[in-house]
Amino acid sequence: MKLPTPERSAQAGIILLFVVIIRSLAEYFRLEHAYGYAIPRQILSEYVGGALIAVVATGICVMFFFARRYRSVVVLVVVTIVALLVYKVRYIL
């Protein structure tokens, strides 16, 4: 079995970060269903903060991708996922 090229890995990482952004922003609708329209601002801000981290990282990854820095994209994706997990444990759980 062949390993994916760094370019393919970078593409997969950027797609993964887009999925993380969509998932984080979709959480608003889940919370709206659970709490109604009176969603506590504290709860909502935690998910928006996580989405903001993912958006900034995705922007940087796209810039690295177009600069052909594929390994940097993969490293940044891994660092972002770890940072989001730490953020979730620290603020959301």
UniProtKB/TrEMBL annotation:
Transmembrane segments: 12-31, 43-66, 72-89
Highest taxon above the source species: Bacteria
Keywords: Membrane, Transmembrane, Transmembrane helix
Protein name: Uncharacterized protein
